[in-house]
Batch of 4 targets.
Target 1
Amino acid sequence: MPIVLSVKFIDDEVLAEIASRLQLRNLRKLDDRPLPPGDYAFGNESRVDPTLRQDGAKNFDFAIFKKTTIFESAAIEFRTEFFNLFNHPQFGPPNGTCCLAPPNGNFGQVTNTINNPRLIQFALKFEF
């Protein structure tokens, strides 16, 4: 059966002396950090944690157009616009609903996207 020695602020030399007198092997200090709270208890994590972030926006829009003059006072413009050109998904934030009865099985999972798929738009404009 292992012997647990729990003493705060113990020096390494004192620990070695205790281990040699008691003829113990692998005696080491316990971690004196506070234990996390149990289930359904409040901890000390802030409500808004700046280190927890969702993925940034990656959206590339592209447009190209050609204007052709027919007369001095009339022209036709053909325009093509691509929204979300590379069709890159932007995932929504992780599901933050927890601690309900029954427990939420999707807690911490990303289950949706927040952008539209690639859209292509053509336009023909007559100017006079």
Target 2
Amino acid sequence: MTCGFAMLIALGIAWAQQPAQNQSSEDLQHILSRLDQTAAEFHTAQADFVWDQYHKVVEEHDLQKGTIYFRRVGNEVQMAADITDPPPPKYVLYTDSKVQVYSTKLDEVDTYNTGKDRAMMDPALSKPHEELARWQKKHHPAAAE
């Protein structure tokens, strides 16, 4: 299930980037309907990641590597991440509208309440059809019409 969901998201985004003349509205509706169907069946996903934070002012890259995990519990999407490189490791947990970051070096947890911004934390997992349409409208306005 996890590979299928990720594949559908990637397929939908790649398809949305094609020129409008190669797309039909029926194809788009079919893909978006499959995204919604798969999202409704989504339970867990896991992936390795590389997070590259680029600081233009000093032209420097801050690379962090690790593993990210998602799971759906009822209507809530929870996330955890193990950031293992560079050492020392850090752990991130998103649940109950809070992001908690545990720094092993400092042996402390920083907590951030997402509150009203919770919808921004998991739109692609909860409503992929709407998120893909919003992305397409922003990045390819002519194709979205």
Target 3
Amino acid sequence: MRKSGFTLLELILVIAIIVVLAGAMLPMFNITRQEAKEAKAKADLDNIKTAAMMFKGDTNSWPVTGSVGADLVANNSGRAGWDGPYLTEWAKDPGNVSYALTDCGTGGLALCANSTGTGSTISVLVTSNKTNP
């Protein structure tokens, strides 16, 4: 007479199948996590772009490059026409690194906001004709 239940071999086989399936799914979760980090960085950079354009409209000059956006959060440089703050706080990218405003390497004619904390550099072109008086 056979007892009801599973044999040890059947249990080991089911566990092995579950482990193989979980191992196959793990890389997909890592890809999704990286895509989420990049999407957050792009959204933050778009906010910085909008704030920089509003700053330019009010002050007729671009924020200081090489900074972490101090001109967009507070009127530290005493610019006339400043009507901010344009951002409530300066965001950090998913790698907990502050975004940076830089010249894009186009001979000083463009302003970029950069993120390096996602494992790859993400840049948003703020303007293609940057000129500061």
Target 4
Amino acid sequence: MKNKTNSVFVNGTLFLIFVLISCQAKKESCDYTLGHVKYEVADKNGYEAYYDLEFAQSCSKKTGRPILMMFSSYGSYALTGMEWDVLDNDEVREIIKENYVFVALYTTDENSLSSYDSTIANALSNKDKINSLGDMNYYLQIERYKNVVCPFYAIVDDNLDLIIDPIVYREKNFVNFLKNGIENFAK
């Protein structure tokens, strides 16, 4: 009987160690310096963000976090103002930092497509019209998420499937949107 208790204790200890290691793995962080495209918009406002999907998806798989996608138009003062009316909030910043992989996808980005981006672009029905990263972001937003309004926010898994309904600029509902995304991702 004593041996049985000892083996259960040993197995229980091993299980606890496994659980602790698994929890620590979820705390992994991502290298936001990676990526084909760099902008300073998010960085200036205290956010770490990717600007292309390849690294956002990779980070999501690595950390087990959902992706918060922000579709916007670079260079538009009005849009940038609306984005940061929503995002310039300490509670929002903390929720995103602790729970999401953040990717800002600009529909006006003139950078050329990486080979990874080309794979996504080729899956879109308008692939013949896609000549830049911005074109791909634009058609991805229209085809996959059925919206053309900017700024537009979608919470997705690492396969880019929606977790909850996306939203457009709504400052008052944004914290609830983020919290609902976390809840639904955990299901």
